[in-house]
Specification:
The chain contains 13 helices and 28 strands. The chain is globular.
């Protein structure tokens, strides 16, 4: 073979090797267009999922460099709370059943310590006792000047909060909290610029993507676990269902991981580890980082989140409902109820309406409508395109501020409903037409409806939640608030109360159960 031919052959082989190497490198770094080949094969009639999957095999990555890079930006959090309890009552660290809060979020690592009187004397009968309880969690730095993100439930009610970073503890200022999304923003002063994590885009995360969780489970500092995104858009009923949009992952989330980052392969935070199901393995839930990005400016500047509010109960359409309403697809939000004295009622929105767009933006699911209206804020005006009786109707709605825990804390107002019995730790009220419609309570059912349950309520341990209807106490029918309070207040100290409680669902579904508590 001549020298020019050898040179040409060598050049060809070199180019071919470079092309092959580039393809392998692009695949390993996930630089290829996701799903394009699969979509093309499907379009060509190849419907075998197994064959399509086999064409996209990837090698397992190493997380070592990623873990080393993000480690300095992950923190542990200790929140201390001084609580008062009546003498003889169980304190936060006393004996009792499992806290349902811990069922989802992990133990609070509470260490009760009775505090002495200021004068050193003994407390008399009936005097309040003080207990200190410590709760732990995780968090991460999001700016060089020391802003830290964690879960609201990690610092809820805390008297003092400390952030452990590196080998030092820093006293933290709680800049803002949002119970609806379970997010809190802290601020520490480290006296130097800090390593921080960038916030990614949770919307672009795909089911099956690799993720890494870093946190402090069981006080094991900087523990790294890995897995994939198992699902998106989960609602699990542990907070305000309107805003639940969890990312599910099989990366291990254990007690103490709450508030830690869920990180993608580019080192960006895509979610905040928040909850686990104690009765299952490899099922953890995280708040999408896009939710955090939407509320961060308000948490930083105002300490709370103000949201726009329509005052309607909505659900996604299924295929049968879309057919029944004469719609070509399941896009839209079906109005199931309209609350009294709300912006939606003022604007003439009716149950049975289907909201198809807001300010020209198409509504595919209820989350689209909730997210947009919430972000607009109070006093804004929105235009709704409503499908009613086979015709499109436009409605102008002036929003108000969404009722919620943040507003209650800011104005010292109680949640809707009252409670004349403080130790119950709940708010409740008589049933009305609006509440019956929102909670699917039939007209023939009498009782009081629970509108709020604090995590320290004895009824929380019995799985009573907002929306539960109490119809009997110790076998005595409860027709209204007066009946309920009379029976509860007449109970002797130490006696047991059997509260017959019902949770109603659609199509006259109901789940009755007894909540048993002891009078203090």
């Amino acid at each position: 073979m001549s020298t020019p031919s050898k040179r040409n052959l060598a050049t060809f082989l070199l180019v071919l090797g470079a092309v092959v190497f580039g393809m392998v490198l692009a695949g390993g770094l996930q630089l290829t267009v996701p799903g394009s080949a699969a979509d093309q094969d499907s379009a060509n009639g190849n419907l075998s999922a197994t064959r399509l999957a086999s064409e996209h095999l990837t090698t397992l990555p190493s997380f070592a460099d990623l873990a080393q890079a993000v480690d300095p930006a992950v923190v542990s959090i200790q929140a201390a709370t001084i609580e008062k309890s009546q003498a003889g009552r169980r304190g936060p660290g006393g004996q009792g059943g499992q806290d349902p809060f811990e069922f989802f979020f992990g133990p609070r690592n509470r260490r009760p310590q009775q505090q002495p009187d200021g004068d050193g004397g003994e407390e008399g009968p009936g005097q309040p006792e003080e207990f200190r309880s410590d709760a732990g969690g995780s968090g991460f730095v999001i700016s060089p000047d020391g802003l830290v993100v964690t879960n609201f439930h990690v610092v809820e009610g805390a008297t003092s909060v400390k952030v452990h970073l590196g080998d030092r503890d820093y006293t933290a200022e709680v800049k803002g909290t949002d119970k609806a999304t379970d997010i809190a923003l802290l601020k520490i002063n480290a006296g130097r610029p800090l390593r921080y994590l960038e916030l990614g885009d949770s919307e672009s995360v795909r089911v099956g993507d690799w993720v890494m969780v870093v946190g402090n489970p069981l006080n094991l500092d900087k523990t790294v676990t890995t897995g994939v995104v198992s699902a998106k858009g989960r609602s699990i009923g542990i907070s305000d269902a309107s805003f639940e949009n969890f990312i599910q992952t099989d990366a291990a989330i254990n007690f103490g991981n709450s508030g830690g980052p869920l990180i993608n392969m580019q080192g960006q935070v895509v979610a905040i580890a928040t909850a686990i199901n104690w009765g299952a393995e490899n099922i953890g839930f995280a708040v999408p980082v896009n939710t955090v990005k939407e509320i961060l400016p308000q948490l930083r500047d105002k300490g709370r989140v103000s949201r726009g509010y329509l005052g309607i109960g909505i659900r996604n359409l299924d295929f049968t409902q879309a057919q029944a309403w004469g719609l070509p697809n399941t896009d839209g939000a079906l109005v199931q109820s309209v609350e009294d004295d709300t912006p939606a009622q003022d604007a003439g929105i009716e149950h049975g309406d289907v909201i198809l767009s807001v300010d020209g933006r198409k509504i595919k699911t209820t989350r689209d409508l909730i997210g947009y209206v919430s972000a607009k804020g109070p006093s804004a005006t929105v235009t709704l395109d409503v499908w009613r009786d086979g015709k499109m109707v436009k409605k102008q709605v002036k929003l108000r501020e969404r009722p919620g825990q943040n507003e209650e804390e800011a104005t010292d107002r109680k949640p809707e409903g009252g409670s004349g019995i403080d130790w119950l730790g709940i708010q409740y009220q008589d049933l009305n037409n609006s509440l019956r419609g929102a909670q699917n309570v039939p007209e023939d059912v009498e009782g009081v409806i629970v509108t709020n349950v604090t995590p320290t309520s004895p009824l929380y341990d019995q799985f009573v939640r907002p929306g539960s209807v109490i119809t009997e106490v110790n076998g005595q029918p409860v027709r209204n608030v007066a009946d309920f309070e009379k029976t509860i207040k007449s109970a002797k100290s130490g006696s047991y109360l059997r509260l017959y409680t019902v949770v109603f669902g659609p199509r006259d579904q109901r789940q009755p159960f007894f909540a048993v508590i002891q009078a203090p």
